[in-house]
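Support request, priority: normal
Reporter: lab tech (M.K.)
Component: structure prediction queue

Hi team, I submitted a job for YCII-related domain-containing protein from Paenibacillus taihuensis yesterday, and the status page still shows it as pending. I've pasted the exact input below so you can check whether something in the sequence is tripping the parser. The sequence length should be 105 residues. Please let me know if I need to resubmit or if it's stuck on your end.
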Amino acid sequence: MQFFVHLSNKQRHLMTEGLVRDHVEYLRKLKEKDVLPFCGPCKDGTAIMILSCGNLEEASLYVEEDPFSKAGYYETRSIVEVEEANAANNFHLDKVVDYLTTRTV
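Reply from support: The job had stalled in the queue. We restarted it manually and it finished. Here are the results:
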């Protein structure tokens, strides 16, 4: 399962060099465990992470164990499961067409 994590409401006054170093080390550990395929800052001051793990509770634990979360650096953290759309699953076309043909209006 994959989860999209959106981090927002940055509390810049909490930023220290030690906090950033701890955060980066945490990200490295997640990357080594193949839990973190992607992460990064957004141009609007927020940040995102993609987590690969077993369930929402596990994703929440990974987010809350991040030093940034522990320090309250990003005040708002939201997590949602995401289904990748790709060529192998026909970009979910079959699922959508099935829904459209079976729905009751």
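Residues 56 and 81 are 7 Å apart (CA to CA). The helical segments are 17-32, 56-65, 67-71, 93-102. Let us know if anything else looks off. Ticket resolved.
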